[in-house]
Amino acid sequence: MNKIILIGNLTRDPELRTTPSGYTVCDFTIAVNNRSGRRQQDGAQPQQDDAQFFRVTAWRQLGENCAKYLAKGRKVFVSGPLTARTYQGNDGTTRVSLEVTADDVEFLTSRNEAQGMGGGYAPAPGAPAPTAQSSGFTAVETDELPF
């Protein structure tokens, strides 16, 4: 079984395109931080975070949703098969690109956080704004909550 689960931040805005056969595909890259909280042997500060970069490809409706709702800096959960591809860099060195074909993408940045980042959730032009009634949720006063 080849499946990877990642949580990371988009490094750039997603790019949506259509294949010659008519399928939509969205490409984006996420950075996943590996935190190393261990102190170095001499007792100095913890080692710096290392980031690994993964190219993600989402097809059809999943790709359309990614292109519509994601933007640079947003946090996402991605799962799917991992592929490693090698290529020659401009300087002649052999490099490796880690690519994931997304089976599932979940948006982890809330609407409020996204608006604070400068991006925002914006429904499609002409689409009605979501309401508590249309989303299936009932509005509740916070005073009524037991916690």
Characteristic key phrases:
147 residues; OB fold (Dihydrolipoamide Acetyltransferase, E2P); 8-stranded mixed β-sheet
Q: Gist?
A:
The chain is mainly beta and 147 residues long. The chain has two helices and eight strands. 11% of the residues lie in helices and 39% in strands.
How far is it from the N-terminal to the C-terminal residue, by CA?
A: 43 Å
What's the alpha carbon Rg, rounded to whole Å? Answer: 20 Å
Number of domains: 1
Number of strands: 8
Describe the structure.
The chain is mainly beta. It has a single domain, classed as Nucleic acid-binding proteins (OB fold (Dihydrolipoamide Acetyltransferase, E2P), Beta Barrel), CATH 2.40.50. 11% of the residues lie in helices and 39% in strands. The protein is built from 2 helices and 8 strands, in the order E-E-E-E-H-E-E-E-E-H. Strands 1, 2, 3, 4, 5, 6, 7 and 8 form an 8-stranded mixed sheet that branches. A hairpin with a 5-residue loop joins strand 2 and strand 3. The longest helix has 10 residues. About 11% of the residues have low confidence.
